[in-house]
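Recap from last week: sequence in, structure out.
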Amino acid sequence: MNAKAEVESTTMDTVKLLLSVIMLAGGIAVFYFLEEQALWVRILSLLAIAGVAIFVALQSVPGRNVWDFAVASRTEVRKVVWPSRQETLQTTLIVFAMVLIMGIVLWLFDMMLMAIVRTVTG
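Predicted structure tokens:
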């Protein structure tokens, strides 16, 4: 369980999230509105507006929750013991072999059922 007390979202949090969505939509509109500008200028303006929108969203309780989740996920990923190349290759080959065997078994079963249906239906 989480030791932190849950903090409820307020109306201000909703306003912040709505403002960030409006800013993102405006950034996309500006990207297409400035069609005559160089592509790098349009991309930089879009990235700047997106950065400000993300900053505004992170000031709300749901935004902080998402950030805390991302930080905790990154910590958990660092704890994972990843398989070696040899283990990965062996597991992959076993999976391919089992898929091939099951495919052949199911194909034979299908052929047998098809023969039975043909015999029964004439």
